[in-house]
Amino acid sequence: ITPGSKAAQSQLSQGDLVVAIGGVNTDTMTHLEAQNKIKSASYNLSLTLQ
């Protein structure tokens, strides 16, 4: 987590597991698909963490 980044500001921590992006389960997503889903979020991004 980069200090000052949006992730840091949202209190994400190293080791957090993203289980859904925008309500879509990440179990079958590739890393690239997850990145693209995050990048395509226009204003709000909903992550479900474990």
List keywords for this structure.
alpha+beta; 50 residues; three-stranded antiparallel β-sheet; cytoplasm
Order of helices and strands: HEEHE
Q: How many strands appear in the DSSP assignment?
A: 3
Number of helices: 2
- Side-by-side strand order of the widest sheet: 2-1-3
Q: What is the first-to-last residue Cα distance?
A: 16 Å
Radius of gyration: 11 Å
Give start-end ranges of low-pLDDT stretches. none
**What's the main sheet like?**
3 strands, antiparallel
Structural class: alpha+beta
Tell me what portion of residues adopts beta-strand conformation: 15-25%
Main location: cytoplasm
Protein name: LIM domain-binding protein 3 isoform
Domain PDZ: 1-50
Keywords: Cytoplasm, LIM domain, Metal-binding, Zinc
Report on this structure:
This protein has helices spanning 6-9, 31-39, and strands at residues 18-21, 24-25, 47-49. The chain has one domain (6-49). It has 50 residues and is α+β, with helices and mostly antiparallel strands. The longest helix is centred in the C-terminal third of the chain and has 9 residues, at 31-39. It is found in: Cytoplasm.
Task: List the SSEs and their pairings.
Blueprint: H1 6-9, E1 18-21, E2 24-25, H2 31-39, E3 47-49
Antiparallel strand pairs: 1-2, 1-3
Brief account:
By secondary structure, this protein is an alpha+beta fold.
